[in-house]
């Protein structure tokens, strides 16, 4: 595992068009200072909705059509889950009409139950219900850390999120958590799966949970965080090196 990690890191450094490639990469692979601090419920709600669109075409259809997911706040009472739940309780159609009126998204808005916008509205509503269980951001982090601090219960944290919030599967739940500072999670996305399958670390039918376990094993062997592994292999798999300065 450590050999794979070191080889991958060396390869990526060679691909970054900068004399400071190693330093730049190290900075990217580490969560910024202060990023792991508890945040308010409104911010948790916003970040969850951001992670929820990080799959397939959703980022373009949702965030891309309204000039950024932050603009959802204009229609979601500044991402207040209590107000969203009260106003649109279990009524995604009413929420979609509200979003169209307030934000005027670009492009075609398909309103069939299996289309992106209606399904995303269901995610918004179920996420508001989920966050309403907590008094504030500290309460959420107390609950999450209780599960996170024990390896035997840690995996249940993204599983609970995936079960309670529509449209948030295990990989997106891990994505949300790692960006909050729970760095022992990595997102088992298609890029990482393709690489791990290609080098023989798992088979094509491996579950997201199994991929997450491999990420954690590699992190432990390499003495880094799963967040670090996630970022490294995502960069290799996506090829999006234009995020780095030249």
Outline the structure in words.
It is a single chain. The protein is built from 14 helices and no strands. It has 246 residues and is mostly helical. It folds into two domains: 2-31 and 184-243, Endonuclease Iii, domain 2; 41-166. Helix 10 (156-164) packs across helix 11 (170-180). It is globular. The two termini are 30 Å apart. The model has no long low-confidence stretch (mean pLDDT 91).
Task: Sum up the structure in keywords.
mainly alpha, 2 domains, Endonuclease Iii, domain 2, about 250 residues, about 0% strand
Give the secondary structure arrangement, pairings included.
Layout: H1 2-15, H2 21-28, H3 41-52, H4 58-61, H5 81-88, H6 92-103, H7 116-131, H8 137-148, H9 151-154, H10 156-164, H11 170-180, H12 190-198, H13 208-222, H14 226-238
Helix pairs in contact: 1-13, 1-14, 3-7, 3-11, 5-7, 6-7, 10-11, 12-14, 13-14
| Terminal CA distance | 30 Å
Q: Determine Rg (CA atoms, Å).
A: 19 Å
Uncertain ranges: none
The general outline is globular
Describe the structure concisely for a colleague.
The chain is mostly helical and 246 residues long.
């Amino acid at each position: 595992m450590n050999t794979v990690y070191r080889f991958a890191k060396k390869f990526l450094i060679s691909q970054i068009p900068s004399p400071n490639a190693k330093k730049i990469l190290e900075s990217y692979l580490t969560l910024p200072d202060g990023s792991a601090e508890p945040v308010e419920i409104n911010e948790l709600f916003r970040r969850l909705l951001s992670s929820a669109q990080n799959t397939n075409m959703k980022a373009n259809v949702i965030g891309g059509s309204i000039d950024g997911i932050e603009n959802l706040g204009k229609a979601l009472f500044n991402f207040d889950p209590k107000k969203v739940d009260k106003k649109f309780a279990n009524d995604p159609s009413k929420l979609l009409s509200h979003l169209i009126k307030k934000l005027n998204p670009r492009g075609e808005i398909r309103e069939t139950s299996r289309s992106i916008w209606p399904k995303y509205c269901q995610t918004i509503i179920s996420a508001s219900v989920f966050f309403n269980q907590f008094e504030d951001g500290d309460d959420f982090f107390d609950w999450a850390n209780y599960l996170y601090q024990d390896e035997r219960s840690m995996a249940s944290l993204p599983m609970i999120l995936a079960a309670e919030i529509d449209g948030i599967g295990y990989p997106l739940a891990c994505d949300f958590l790692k960006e909050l500072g729970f760095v022992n999670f990595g997102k088992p996305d298609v890029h990482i799966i393709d690489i791990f399958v290609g080098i023989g670390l798992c088979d094509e039918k491996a579950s997201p949970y199994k991929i997450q376990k491999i990420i954690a094993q590699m992190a432990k062997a390499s003495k880094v965080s799963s967040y670090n592994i996630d970022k490294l292999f995502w960069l290799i798999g996506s090829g999006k090196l234009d995020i780095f300065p030249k």
